From TrEMBL:
The gene is Stard5. The keyword tRNA-binding does not apply. The keyword Manganese does not apply. Residues 1-212 form the START domain. InterPro entries: StARD5/6 (IPR043556), START-like_dom_sf (IPR023393), START_lipid-bd_dom (IPR002913). Gene3D superfamilies: 3.30.530.20. SUPFAM superfamilies: Bet v1-like (SSF55961). This is STAR5 protein.
Length: 212
């Protein structure tokens, strides 16, 4: 039976809304000038969910320009965890199936990964933009031999306008990723907080470059 991509994407977006409204149970694990990262056990898989929250010094439009999940977008240029991003199938104006590959990481302890996700883009009445995703299978994306297939469980980024502050954006992001393969838990637990801190730091540089 065909996968209900739109339904799965909508479900991931709903879960993001729930995560956003439910601040309980998160435990701080890393803080930089750009982001505070916290975690709690995931309800989706046998790993952790991570939450990143920070203020990016740019308008929501510029921040969205840097993070929006589109073919040929800016993300592959600034995000060190995204090597390649392709849209495999556009399901609708707001839903697409995408394949992301990541370079080796953590001094090559983590080999290159590939992820196949359905991604949904949603705009809320207050101007907040959401990009939400979750893992799917797709006939055009069989596992590739040079990559370990990883799985993103419902995850996403909210670009939230700050009233009266047009040049600042709250970025709230949730990550729950099963990297696949046979990685020691200690590696996984130290990789995500540092990777999320890097994401915010590189995004901040990217929006500055965009405005320059």
């Amino acid at each position: 039976p065909a996968m209900d991509y739109a339904g799965l994407a909508e479900e991931a977006a709903e879960k993001m809304g729930l995560y956003r409204r439910d601040p309980g149970g998160w435990r701080g694990c890393r803080r930089t000038s750009e982001v505070s990262v916290s975690w709690r056990p995931s309800a989706e898989f046998a790993g952790n969910a991570y939450r990143g929250e920070g203020i990016v010094p740019a308008s929501p439009r510029d921040v969205w320009e840097c993070i929006k999940p589109v073919a040929g977008g800016l993300r592959t240029k600034w995000d060190q965890n995204v090597k390649d991003f392709e849209v495999v199938e556009a399901i609708s104006d707001t839903v697409s199936v995408c394949r992301t590959t990541t370079p080796s990481a953590f001094m090559r302890v983590i080999s290159p990964r590939e992820f196949v996700d359905v991604v949904l883009i949603k705009q809320y009445e207050d101007g907040t933009m959401l990009s939400a995703a979750t893992n799917v299978e797709h006939p055009l994306c069989p596992p590739q031999p040079n990559f370990v297939r990883g799985f993103n469980y419902p995850c996403g980024c909210f670009c939230i306008p700050l009233p009266g502050e047009p040049d600042r954006t709250q970025l709230l992001s949730f990550f729950q990723t099963d990297l696949g393969g046979y990685l020691p838990q200690t590696v996984v637990d130290s990789f995500f907080p540092s990777s999320i801190a890097g994401f915010y730091s590189n995004l901040t540089k990217a929006v500055k470059a965009l405005k320059a």
